[in-house]
Amino acid sequence: QITLKESGPTLVKPTQTLTLTCTFSGFSLSTSGVGVGWIRQPPGKALEWLALIYWDDDKRYSPSLKSRLTITKDTSKNQVVLTMTNMDPVDTATYYCAHSPVIIDGSLFDYWGQGTLVTVSS
Amino acid sequence: AIRMTQSPSSFSASTGDRVTITCRASQGISSYLAWYQQKPGKAPKLLIYAASTLQSGVPSRFSGSGSGTDFTLTISCLQSEDFATYYCQQYYSYPITFGQGTRLEIK
Q: Does B97 sit within 8 Å of A109, measured CB to CB?
């Protein structure tokens, strides 16, 4: 059974750096083709993909946020960490991590964490 | 980036209705399209991938079709638990992009 859970601060101040951890079980990030992604959703708005890391450490980022994002993995701990610098109130959102399965091409998300609401406010 | 446009943005329907939601890509994406269902306060749930393949455990009243730029999600006989917001997602190329969502409400 695959499960994922996000953890991190619920409140950050503008200009601060956000660090979120995704702790997962039921799969290994050393399995060929597997990935873990981050997706966010501002209150009442649509889903926005942020970043994805693959089993081989290949990393993909949203171009509009690439300069602010870093995604890393710790395979031994079954964790993926996302950092986002220079936080702004518009970054207030629920942040999800999700499992990307082995498929022929591309990435989709078949298991999601429950999400964590991050509020950016002074 | 490939833009995904869903229509309608919201609509009302009744239990037992057959409903169709449309997703259009700004350029061809072959069949690299997924559909998700999201209920308030919950994470999205994968319904369909590869445009028409039902994810394991998803009821057969859900179906998907299309390729290239135009796609549809059909619910053949609405149940009360189907009232939710639906998103399409393309995975043809990076960046991965989602549609703006279609909110399905009870009439």
A: no
Give the chain A residue whose CA is nearest to the CA of B6: A46
CA-to-CA distance for B60 and B75, rounded, in angstroms? 9
In this predicted model, what pLDDT tens digit does every residue of B16-44 receive, in sequence order?
999 999 999 999 999 999 999 999 999 99
Alpha carbon distance B46, B43 (integer Å): 10
State how far the Cα of A52 lies from the Cα of A41, in Å rounded to an integer: 16
Of B49, B87, B94, the CB nearest to A46: B87
| Structure tokens belonging to residue B56 | 């394991």
What gap in Å lies between CA A122 and CA B74, rounded to an integer?
45
Report strand pairing: A11-12 vs A116-120. Answer: parallel
Contacts of A98 in chain B (CB under 8 A): 43
For residues B62 and B77, the answer to whether their CB atoms sit within 8 Å is no
Q: Strands B10-13, B102-106: parallel, antiparallel or unpaired by DSSP? A: parallel
Q: Please check whether residue B96 touches A, CB under 8 A.
A: yes
